[in-house]
Amino acid sequence: MPTRTRDDLRNVAIVAHVDHGKTTLVDAMLWQSGAFRGGQAHQGAPERVLDSLDLEREKGITILAKNTAVHWTGPGAPPGGVTLNIVDTPGHADFGGEVERGLSMVDGVVLLVDASEGPLPQTRFVLRKTLAAHLPVVLVINKVDRTDARIADVVDDTYALFMDLIDGTGYDPDTVLGFPIVYASARAGRSSLTRPPDGGLPDGGDLGPLMRTIIETVPPPSYDDDAPLQAHVTNLDASPFLGRLALCRVRSGTIRRGQQVAWARRDGSLERVKVSELLMTEGLERVSTEQAGPGDIIAVAGIPEITIGETLTDPDDPRPLPLITVDEPAISITIGTNTSPMAGRAGSTKVTARLISDRLQRELVGNVSIRLLPTDRPDAWEVQGRGELALAILVETMRREGFELTVGKPQVVTRMVDGTLHEPVEQLTVDCPEEHLGPVTQLLASRRARMTQMINHGTGWVRMEYLVPARGLIGFRTEFLTATRGTGVAHHVFEGYQPWAGELRTRATGSLVADRAGTASSYAMFSLQERGSLFVEPGTEVYEGMIVGESARGEDLDVNITKERKLTNMRSSTAEELERLVPPRRLSLEQCLEFCRDDECVEVTPVAARLRKTVLPAIDREKLRARARTRTPWEPSSRLAP
After folding, report:
1. Which is the most buried residue in 431, 447, 537, 626, by most CB within 10 A?
2. CB within 8 Å of 516: residues ≥ 6 apart
3. Using an 8 Å Cβ cutoff, are 440 and 466 in contact?
4. DSSP notation for 106-141
């Protein structure tokens, strides 16, 4: 049993819904603890310093969990100060594997809730994981200075969320609900234990009240002096000089640079390895250290094949820790080689099945929330993940690395339960103006959504909560923004598996498909824009089977978008008319994946993402349609989860 504690150390994770201010709060902690010094302080460090990936900065979200360390000597700190190891976690449920890994490294959690939006689906998701790990919680009501803040209502909603999550679990309500509440404005760098008026700043001049509350609430790491070394690998990183780095939380014992340790592998075997380098985090940098003790979060170099969930332990008394487990994947896509007529024209060299397979295998090493399954084709693989966004991020990352891919339509991962087909169901929360309530309700009804709650805050906005099949949300966001004129906000999180809801059609319109190869002409596009909206501009090279637009009707339409004006020596009264074209719709990679139907896919290259039919020749597509009309009634065709 643990007999001692390290009062100079606290390990805490910051969890919240998307865009509730986690990374901004970490910025303020770094500034006020003096992590930015010298030239950094004078030149100004960038905002959201922990969002270091290009995709994170472009999308404004956290994708990978990252840790930093601040040394606090202000209010509440013991003599000599205390080191806070802070883990910044993603707020999107698609990256839930990062949240679960982050929670395995810490002893407490700071839960951020927006003072206006209140608890949202990802708040429920991260709080459920926190309670399952039996971690103490510090509730921070952030953005209290928003003009539409409703602090008292949000606190009540958060208490209700806690009660809902602990109902039937056997947890003691008095213990769980005894968490402290801090009111903060992360952007202003201020916090307080007393509730400010709605829209007002906290009366504290800095984050001292928050830091003191964390130190008093989160327990220090505890350990037994006689216990052998146990260091749990929770994440991986890489260095151009040291190779693969294993990020570990030391549970017990001491680890030293140059020490021989036992590597407890995933298959149960033990192997002696040497710790060639030992690093610890100070502020935003990793610095070399001679040794680390219980509670420390470290980076270990010298073990090139180590993976997440494995353990470094004492070779004389090996005691492996349990492997890290994450939730099952709910969405899958098929990734294969680029088979279009324009493959290889972007100048990329990463077009072969071997290179794509190696890249997907490398992704499995550092991403514990995805699975890779073979298909009936040697040049295509099924990739399963938490949601569309996580899989789209993987494809976008590979595109930026120079790969050319063919990506299929997202499908749900079904499973058989007691002989009945079950599918994943999501909990959806929708905020929209009252005048758009009817169109939103109609849109969700067509996707077999079931309303569970509707709240009108009296501000002109309505919040609705639904249970909806995950496949009903594929392609939902674009239609939802259209129905609400761009004002609606929707968030969803995985709820569980329920019996198959039956057939549903997520896209009521068809596709405009090029019937020949060539170059798109303005003359042909001028006539076609009456048939629907176009995705390409004049001069774009197209090929047979490429989708060039969305049809206004429900069926696909093969069109000749390369038709040129016939030149003659006869004058015409309409010959000099200006061809006025509507600007084309530019689809992002995520929008392309949402647009796809079952017989469509996305061609992804380093310079473009093109929609196309899976079968390119129009004659072959017509044969398949004729064969489908004589087939047995529709049945779900998704691959069953193992």
Report:
1. 447
2. 544, 560, 562
3. no
4. -SEEEEEEETTT-S-HHHHHHHHHHHHTT--EEEEE
Q: Which residues of 373-412 are buried (b: 16+ CB within 10 A; e: fewer)?
A: eeeeeebbbbbbbbbbbbbbbbbbbbbeeebbbbbbbbbb
Per-residue pLDDT band for 590 (boundaries 50, 70, 90) equals confident
Instruction: Encode pLDDT of 481-513 as tens digits.
Output: 888 888 888 888 888 889 998 888 777 788 999
User: What are 90-112's pLDDT values in tens digits?
Assistant: 766 667 677 777 888 899 999 99
Interval 46-99: pLDDT, tens:
454 554 556 655 655 666 667 888 888 877 777 888 888 888 887 666 676 777
**Run of H or E including 263:** strand 260-264
Q: Which of 59, 126, 120, 125 minimizes the C-alpha distance to 88?
A: 126
Residues with Cβ < 8 Å from 228, sequence gap 6 or more?
252, 253, 313, 314, 316, 317, 318, 319
Q: How far apart are CA 123 and CA 111, in angstroms?
A: 8
CA distance 209 to 140: 11
Could you give the angle at which helices 151-166 and 121-132 cross, rounded to 10 degrees?
A: 50
Cβ neighbours of residue 20 closer than 8 Å, sequence gap 6 or more: 91, 112, 113, 114, 117, 123, 142, 143
